[in-house]
Amino acid sequence: MYMAKVVGSVVSTVKDPSLIGRKLMIVQPINSDGQTVRHQEVAADAIGAGVGEYVLLVRGAGARQVHQGEARDVNDCAIVGIIDRFDR
């Protein structure tokens, strides 16, 4: 699990069926000081995060298990929490 800031959204009218109904967000991974650490990526939003919010992300198998009871094999990165604050 790691932290990121939501910096935008992706609109896709044609996509894999496993992503239908999922909001796709552009996220910028950050470290505990709020500085960027890697390139931006796209994450499937499981909780309704908005642009400008700091979020918790999971990748790989953790991202695929976020959508309980649904086949979501395509998800590689998912937003699973909104950060209210982080103390450094």
From TrEMBL:
InterPro entries: EutN_CcmL, EutN_CcmL_sf
Principal location listed in the UniProt entry: other
Keyword match rRNA processing: no
Highest taxon of source: Bacteria
Entry keywords, A to Z: Bacterial microcompartment, Carboxysome
Keyword Transmembrane: no
GO CC annotation terms, alphabetical: carboxysome
Pfam families from the UniProt entry: EutN_CcmL
Name this protein carries in UniProt: Ethanolamine utilisation protein EutN
